[in-house]
């Protein structure tokens, strides 16, 4: 559920009916339908389709949205499979046993990709997205910590979780919803990501784990998991505290294995007990799919797994949702078969090449300073060069680009760096070198226009362009 505040102007519009184009009105049908109430009478399928189609048509062009990480394109064969599987309920493993088997195969494939010691004994599940996967990871960390504390006769009522101040908002939700103290290590110009520096000031006996991000949402940078683990090793040697790591690989866990295979961030790092990713980001599936894998069964407390009798079968489940689509799981399996390791490597390398090309070109413009160069995941950010202008900001540039169809968010960096505003580009599958050149041409033209101003742009407040 997404809460909405309705302005007076919006309230007036929402009260007005939806009028139908006379061309689409069939004999005997009403020429308008209520906007906020279920209509009293039926409509023909063609009429209902046209209303919804026309409404959705007003959304932006997803191919020009350089803000989102979420996949927006799949092949025709995948689209056909999606439609064929639209009725499958992932939770009903008795009715759809092959879909359940394919889910298990995909989780094992990911465990193998992420170097689990014994992939077939690793535990994993699909989720609605990475946010749900993060919630499950946090719950497992909390429950393991509680069991250990109680077994030692110690209180277990003040858990905390350590992470960077640049985490995605789902971690704030987890800590809020499950009564866990959120301990954020601030990023700085010297430490742009959580890198283990000063970690001993945040970790104590109540720490349930440390979250390392493989692809920070703000900038796309990797947090060095191995260095974080080394810092925790030193803390354990001094204090005896054995603190584990969860890797939030929403984006990077489907990039690093293919184009940075030598980087040790996954289960090769002994302290890593769980990893999540978004199938619908660089997993290349349509929205609605995440994955989480635990190193081995003992990393997921058994009392978190429910065994329920549902629709004729006995089924173990660990999820926040119950009924949910199974189609995206089949699409993930389709892509694993369709692309294989080599195909994924080509796709991700192409995205990386476009991102680093764009970063070089934008970084060479006098107006900008790069924050990072897109060499981790295919994402990079830049800031306005100090002293370049007093007449415009990155928010104004974002507005100008939006008029050309490009959605490029401008937003403040997290706490302690909030005075710095950056813009960010996410390069996804399908954003070609030609499209990058078209974007660069528009960017240069709009920067030229803004630089030609002889007085400041109006100081109208800009709402936050992107929520992390």
UniProtKB/TrEMBL annotation:
Molecular function in Gene Ontology: aromatic-L-amino-acid decarboxylase activity; glutamate decarboxylase activity; pyridoxal phosphate binding
EC number(s) recorded for this UniProt protein: 4.1.1.15
Question: Which Gene Ontology CC terms are recorded?
Answer: cytosol
User: What InterPro entries does the entry give?
Assistant: Glutamate_decarboxylase, PyrdxlP-dep_de-COase, PyrdxlP-dep_Trfase, PyrdxlP-dep_Trfase_major
Quote the Pfam families the UniProt record gives: Pyridoxal_deC (PF00282)
* Residues that bear N6-(pyridoxal phosphate)lysine: 281
Q: Which GO terms describe its biological process?
A: L-glutamate catabolic process
Cofactor(s) needed for function: pyridoxal 5'-phosphate
Catalytic activity field? L-glutamate + H(+) = 4-aminobutanoate + CO2
Its domain of life reads Bacteria
UniProt keyword list: Decarboxylase, Lyase, Pyridoxal phosphate
- Family to which the UniProt record says this protein belongs: Belongs to the group II decarboxylase family.
Family annotation (PANTHER family): GLUTAMATE DECARBOXYLASE
Query: This chain belongs to which protein, by name?
Result: Glutamate decarboxylase
In which organism is this protein found?
Acidipropionibacterium acidipropionici
What does UniProt list as this organism's lineage?
Bacteria, Bacillati, Actinomycetota, Actinomycetes, Propionibacteriales
